[in-house]
Design goal:
single chain, alpha/beta, Rossmann fold, 14 helices, 16% strand, binds nicotinamide-adenine-dinucleotide, binds thymidine-5'-diphosphate
Length: 364
Amino acid sequence: MSGGTAPRFPRLLVTGGAGFIGSCFVRDVLARKDGTHITVLDKMTYAGNRANLAPAEADPEQAARLLFVVGDIADASVVAPLASEVDAIVNFAAESHVDRSILDPEAFLRTDVMGVHVLLEAARAEAERARRGERAGAPRMLQVSTDEVYGSVETGESREGDLLEPRSPYSAAKAAGELLVRSYFVTYGMDVVVTRGSNTYGPYHHPEKLIPLFITNAMDDQQLPLYGDGLQRRDWLYVADHAGAIGHVLAHGVAGETYNVPGDNERTNRDVVTALLDDLGKPWSLVRQVEDRPGHDRRYAMDGTRLAALGWTNRMPFERGLAATVEWYRANQDWWRAIKSGEWTDYYQRQYGARLAGSREAGR
Ligand code: NAD
Ligand code: TYD
């Protein structure tokens, strides 16, 4: 062990650790060099990418503390033995894209609901083993959830105790997953915590999402499909801040509690697109107004008092984070060009073919 204080959970199972936020968490925890060992369990769907862990795997000391397992969180035979060897489970694994949930909801139920159930059952079996004295303590489980479970928030800010009113198959599945987690605290007394993060952006973000899609399309002078009037509002959170907040809740969160993780950077989609085009030096004329997403949530916004009271503060202001993100996509074209091929071409056609064909000038 060479840096930092001894971790509360020295052995972690990080599910979905080859995705966008999970891989940032893994890279950042391993880079702390505090002796933490991480097993990543990832199904390697279209969103999983081993290259996201390359910086950790390139460092022999970090690579020695990382075990990579390809497998499904909904498969109990894979999950149970892995759970028996860790002190905590951090569940990032999910189908995560709203538009894909509208095209094909079933995968969302399998992973975001049944997958969570399988993880909880594995953790519960370990808690039983701890009660019988067969292991040192019960594992903690942190469920990574989303602000989208609150539904569209026209005014004000969602608090953790507010009603959950999800409106897309994605957010409904995420709500079901986190409610299961909560039920295991109430019913079985398990050590669980939930985080609800806001819209996250930064390096290694899959180009299906707004910011990386528009950056990479604009770099190639391709059209930018803005849904509806573009006045929907999102609260943007830099990925390292999101991953850091999750680590903070894992270490300090109260069992059974839920913590909002806001970015405190609320912007309309038009504002975001204007800023990224400025950073890229590309014209607004690339932006096309296309048919809106069905059931499109108008706004998300959360109150972050509970997380602040736990001692967490975000570090990255939006303008600096966006500029760093644009720079990363400029410098890592091999990474995103490899993703924008194969399966991507079919998806893009399905999602945007008719929309772009029927699009019009977005007007500034
Ligand atoms: P992502 O789509 O980039 O990554 C998801 C990862 O999970 C991928 O590596 C994928 O291969 C893996 N995966 C999918 N199904 C799996 C399964 N059945 N078993 C094992 N692995 C599986 O997603 P992300 O943006 O990194 O989001 C991570 C988590 O954070 C998700 O739970 C998401 O709901 C939540 N979240 C995301 C955001 C955001 O803005 N991206 C905001 C708030 C919360
Ligand atoms: P997205 O990145 O899909 O995140 P979420 O739906 O989880 O908030 O979208 C962010 C916002 O950008 C959302 O209001 C939808 C909008 N959007 C577009 O206008 N065009 C696009 O091509 C995409 C992917 C998103």
